[in-house]
Design a protein that fits this description.
rod-shaped
Length: 186
């Protein structure tokens, strides 16, 4: 595309110029950005769009008579945007998903900081003390020590159904004693 795109009616519109830019230069831009983004198609597509937005914001650069094609200008803008995006990613810490946080032992739910975690620990300890010894044993084995129902049944010398029943009633009792934590006790 050279100076401007003229429609059959004789008017020049930014939308048609942008569409023409996309048709004429979109693939080479995408190919360059895909290499610069290490094969990340989504990031490359985003940067192609950003490059075209920059072209739309600076129509004077596209109409300069100093060059025959706008492709070098577009490729330069795209390369600079890719460099800026890479630098921005490197300046931020790496993003991690919720699964990574949970596996690392970081619980981002109700207990956000150390003081809240400590208070919650004290609350739960006091609440567990109110349970009957039978319920407390099952709760400690299954929920705090991570034993399976079968393991808890074998350790306590009771049927698995009794372990399930005691765990259910222990949690129900804790919900009554700890109403603010009811959602966490499911």
């Amino acid at each position: 595309m050279t100076a401007a795109t003229t429609l059959t009616t004789g008017t020049t519109t930014a939308e048609h110029e942008l569409a023409a830019l996309q048709r004429e230069h979109g693939r080479p831009l995408f190919a360059l950005l895909l290499r610069l983004c290490d094969g990340d198609r989504q990031r490359a597509e985003d940067l192609v769009q950003e490059t075209l937005v920059r072209a739309w914001q600076h129509p004077e650069a596209l109409r300069a008579d100093a060059f025959e094609s706008v492709r070098p200008w577009l490729l330069t803008v795209a390369r600079r945007l890719a460099i800026d995006a890479r630098r921005a990613r490197q300046a931020r810490p790496a993003e991690v998903g919720d699964a990574v946080l949970e596996s690392a032992g970081v619980y981002a739910g109700v207990c956000a900081d150390h003081a809240e975690r400590s208070a919650a620990t004290v609350d739960v300890r006091e609440a567990v003390k109110t349970l009957t010894p039978e319920h407390r044993e099952v709760l400690v084995l299954v929920y705090f020590q991570g034993a399976s129902v079968a393991e808890a049944a074998k350790t306590l010398g009771i049927p698995p159904g009794t372990v399930k029943s005691r765990a259910y009633y222990a949690l129900r009792a804790l919900r009554r004693v700890l109403p603010g934590y009811a959602a966490d006790l499911r």
